[in-house]
Write a structure and sequence with these properties.
9 helices; 43% helix; 6-stranded parallel β-sheet; single chain; binds magnesium ion
Length: 217
């Protein structure tokens, strides 16, 4: 029967490849090599000499000893430049493209909605494919991960990883000088985009999916 045959082919195909699942991906520090650009501009603007390992992106005001108003003036002047000029992280385009062939990509960024066009243009320019772009305007990513039923978030900010993983969503933390330290359950360090690809596509069991909120990878 042709119908039964089609179903058998489909079952074999799915069993061999795994069902598509939803992969969350951050932009700055994960797809975009933004940090050096941010530090150069912040150091120059606020006349400081901070190094990458001293930066806490969640609290730039504290790091640079400036007020929120001073930071917002800086962003008004430099924001669009900072959103459009970074180069992609090594391997991001290649491996994200390979993951996208099988899974759905949800880009979850703290960037504000007002930078949507610059962000879309930057993603397109660097061949970074996705299904949905979520601009939160805050570092609170837990709800976005849960509401989209994401199976994993690729992130570089440890504090975000801790919060998201506490909701049962595994996190692949892309290694950086500013995210060193012990990792809680469901947060796993990745040292490159190849590492991210290998974990998601070849060794997804390492993400301990039995505890996840989303479907199994
Ligand atoms: Mg980031």
């Amino acid at each position: 029967m042709p119908g039964q045959w089609n179903i058998m082919v489909y079952v074999i195909f799915v069993a061999g490849r795994g069902l598509p699942v939803r992969i969350g991906v951050d932009i700055d520090g994960v797809l975009a090599d933004s940090l050096s650009l941010w530090i150069n501009e912040l150091n120059s603007y606020f006349k400081k000499d901070k190094r990458v390992e001293q930066i806490r992106l969640l609290d730039i005001c504290e790091t640079y000893e400036v007020t929120p108003l001073e930071l917002s003036v800086f962003l008004a002047r430099k924001g669009r430049y900072l959103m459009t000029r970074p180069m992609p992280i090594t391997g991001a385009s290649q491996y994200l493209g390979m993951i996208k062939k099988q899974h759905d990509i949800y880009i979850v960024t703290a960037r504000d909605e007002r930078y949507k066009q610059e962000t879309v243009d930057w993603l397109n320019k660097h061949n970074l494919p996705y299904d949905e772009l979520i601009l939160l305007g805050s570092h609170e990513k837990k709800e976005a991960c849960l509401s989209r039923n994401l199976s994993v978030l690729v992130e570089d900010t440890l504090e975000i990883g801790v919060k998201v993983s506490s909701a049962g969503v595994p996190v692949l933390l892309l290694d950086a000088p500013y995210n060193q330290g012990a990792l809680p359950d469901l947060v796993y360090r990745a040292y490159s985009w190849f590492d991210v690809y290998r974990t998601i596509m070849i060794e997804p069991h390492l993400l301990n999916p039995s505890h996840t909120a989303g479907p199994r990878i």
